[in-house]
Structures are given as structure tokens and as C-alpha cells.
Amino acid sequence: KAGVTQTPRYLIKTRGQQVTLSCSPISGHRSVSWYQQTPGQGLQFLFEYFSETQRNKGNFPGRFSGRQFSNSRSEMNVSTLELGDSALYLCASSILTEDGYTFGSGTRLTVV
Amino acid sequence: GQQLNQSPQSMFIQEGEDVSMNCTSSSIFNTWLWYKQEPGEGPVLLIALYKAGELTSNGRLTAQFGITRKDSFLNISASIPSDVGIYFCAGRFPGSDKIIFGKGTRLHILP
């Protein structure tokens, strides 16, 4: 069965631009979470969605937003990009949030 | 803020040696998870622990959920080259769906 699919795999953007990242969870998984991974900070929780509702949010500025569609696919958006937003953005899905997550391969965002 | 303290940060070991790493927190968790991440990929779940005191194995990997619910360890026996990677612990707070991660233990294996 297909895993968690994230697109695109790599992205280069300029400061001030905005970006949208996409995540398709495993079929049947209704919970989708997003994490930012950087060498210095490790995996930082961004937000979690379940049945189109945001259930948890991490400590990131309002420039970071997300949504989930009725088919459980999720997108995250970062507006007014800053150099410090360069990171690997990981999406993870699970059937129930009591389960461990299955991660996608991530989107590597570079802001120049 | 909420955080997991994972140690060691990195390890250099000889092939065939056993490995031990652990995570501690000032908070209580009701789930502990251990992941491995290889270059260019997302973390992969190795072991999930749901009860205090639980000891679970997955091949050469063994993990335990600490009795206090504030710590967990992962052991790897007889390490092999493909064990190289970054190992993350993660914990879920009681009554919450949110999972937080440790900063990882980077495992290097010397030939």
C-alpha cells in the first residue's frame, strides 16, 4: 500500500515569497501532522489535523498555516518566507492518534 | 517548554557492539515511540510502547517504557553497518494527541 506522499521533494524560494507544501496520507489515515526539522532544533511540531479540524498547534508564528481536505490530504503554507524557514518539512499520518505516525520523505525547502 | 532530553547526541561504535540510548523528560507520557531516520528520508517507526514498565523487542532492538513514565531507553544488540542513522525518541502526553520528539542520537559504526 502507498506510503505518505509529500510533494514537492525539493523547493527553492526567495525571501518574502510564500510556499505551499502538500501531503497525501496513507489511505484510511485521518490524522495528519506536520513537523519542521532543522539540524539545530530537531523535529519541531507545527500542527495536527484530524477530519479537517486543526486539533493541535505548535509554537510557530502565524506565517505558518495549514488545512486538511475531506479526503484527508493536507497542505501547509508559509507566507513571507525568511531565511530561517529553510528546513526539511515532514508530514506524518496515522489511523488514530494513539498510533505511532508514518512519515513521508519530506519536502526540503531552501530560502535564499 | 516541553522537551525530551535524549542522550547521547552521537555515538561512535565498532561493528558488533551493543548500543544503548535513552530519553528523559520532566513530564509524564502515556506513549513512547522510537524512530530511525536515514539520510534523505523521513523517520521510520521502530518500536511503540504504551504501558509503564513495558519491554518490547523488534529483532535486535529492545525498548522499555520507564516505570515513572518519564523515561525510555532503546538498546541495539550486535550492531551492523545498516544500523547507521539518527534515532529519535518521541512521547505523547496523556489526554493529548500531540507528540514531541527528542533531538536524536546519531549512530556511527566503525568498520
Tag the structure with descriptive keywords.
heterodimer; A: 112 residues; mainly beta; 4-stranded antiparallel beta sheet; 0% helix; B: 111 residues; 6-stranded mixed beta sheet
Layout of SSEs?
The complex is a heterodimer of chains A (112) and B (111).
Chain A: E1 5-7, E2 10-13, E3 19-24, E4 31-38, E5 42-50, E6 53-57, E7 64-68, E8 74-78, E9 87-94, E10 102-103, E11 107-111
Parallel strand pairs in A: 2-11
Antiparallel strand pairs in A: 1-3, 3-8, 4-5, 4-9, 5-6, 7-8, 9-10, 9-11
Chain B: E1 5-7, E2 10-14, E3 19-24, E4 31-37, E5 44-49, E6 55-58, E7 61-65, E8 71-76, E9 85-92, E10 99-101, E11 105-110
Parallel strand pairs in B: 2-11
Antiparallel strand pairs in B: 1-3, 3-8, 4-5, 4-9, 6-7, 7-8, 9-10, 9-11
Describe this structure in words.
The complex is a heterodimer of chains A (112) and B (111). In chain A, the strands form 2 sheets. In chain A, strands 2, 4, 5, 6, 9, 10 and 11 form a 7-stranded mixed beta sheet that branches. In chain A, β9 and β10 (102-103) form a beta hairpin. The N and C termini of chain A lie far apart (37 Å). The radius of gyration of chain A is 13 Å and the shape is globular. By secondary structure, chain A is mainly beta. Chain A contains no helices and 11 strands. By secondary structure, chain B is mainly beta. Chain B has strands at 5-7, 10-14, 19-24, 31-37, 44-49, 55-58, 61-65, 71-76, 85-92, 99-101, 105-110. In chain B, β7 (61-65) and β8 form a beta hairpin. The model of chain B has no long low-confidence stretch (mean pLDDT 93). Classes of the chains: A mainly beta (112), B mainly beta (111). The interface between A and B is medium-sized, with 25 and 22 residues.
Number-wise, the strands of chain A total 11
- Terminal CA distance of chain A: 37 Å
* Helix-and-strand structural type of chain A: mainly beta
In sequence order, what are the helices and strands of chain A, one letter per element? Answer: EEEEEEEEEEE
Radius of gyration of chain B from CA coordinates: 13 Å
Q: In percent, how helical is the residue content of chain B? A: under 10%
Largest interface: A-B, 25 and 22 residues
Instruction: Work out the oligomeric state of the chains in this entry.
Output: heterodimer
Order of helices and strands of chain B: EEEEEEEEEEE
Spans where pLDDT lies below 50 across 5 or more residues of chain B: none
Span between termini of chain B: 40 Å
- SS-based class of chain B: mainly beta
Proportion of residues in β-strands of chain B: over 45%
Question: What would the average pLDDT of chain B be, to the nearest integer?
Answer: 93
Principal-axis shape of chain B equals globular
Net shape of chain A? globular
Q: Given the structure, what is the number of helices of chain A? A: 0
- Helix proportion of residues of chain A, in percent? under 10%
The radius of gyration over CA of chain A amounts to 13 Å
